[in-house]
Amino acid sequence: MLKIRLSRGGSKKRPYYHIVIADAAAPRDGKFIAKVGAYNPMLGKDNEARVTLKVEAIADWLKKGAQPTDRVARFLAKEGLVKWEHGNNPQKGTPGKKAQERAAERAQREQDRLDAEAAAKEEAAAAAAAPVEEPAAVEDVAAEEAPASEESTEA
């Protein structure tokens, strides 16, 4: 597979790129088939010499099946050779299947914990209200037992 890509040149902190046709398996700055342009990022964006392209040669390579990289496709789109759309792959940042499963388990554990806390609060509220009623019930039972014992003594 052929790629139209950048090959870095220039010295340290002074980049200069050649736009080359290369095999996809070749290293970035390694063996290439043809030079079809240049890119000098040190020049201003409005400078005409920032990007130079051999348009006819690039068009021929595109017909032969060469695929431009993203950065080169931007340059070629300005010349009208290829269509390039701004934007990234929206699916790239989504978590994998295992990570989604772990997140679902974590959310379930958190929901169970919140449900248990709510149930504990309800029980505590019921327990706080119930002891007030229980002593009255104990006194009623004691009061009922007392007349019954009196009745048994009378008989």
TrEMBL record:
- Give start-end positions of Basic and acidic residues composition bias: 98-124
InterPro entries referenced in this protein's UniProt entry, alphabetically: Ribosomal_bS16 (IPR000307), Ribosomal_bS16_dom_sf (IPR023803)
Transmembrane segment boundaries: none
Q: Gene3D superfamilies per the record?
A: 3.30.1320.10
Pfam families annotated for this entry?
Ribosomal_S16
Q: Name one GO biological process term.
A: translation
Listed under GO cellular component are: cytoplasm; small ribosomal subunit
Q: By its UniProt entry, which SUPFAM superfamilies does this protein fall under?
A: Ribosomal protein S16
| Bias type Low complexity, positions | 125-140
> Which molecular-function annotation in GO is an example for this chain?
structural constituent of ribosome
Arranged from A to Z, the UniProt key words for this protein are: Ribonucleoprotein, Ribosomal protein
Biased composition (Acidic residues) is annotated at 141-155
Q: Which family does it belong to?
A: Belongs to the bacterial ribosomal protein bS16 family.
Instruction: Read off the PANTHER family from this record.
Output: 30S RIBOSOMAL PROTEIN S16, SMALL RIBOSOMAL SUBUNIT PROTEIN BS16M
What's this protein's name? Small ribosomal subunit protein bS16
Species for this entry: Asticcacaulis endophyticus
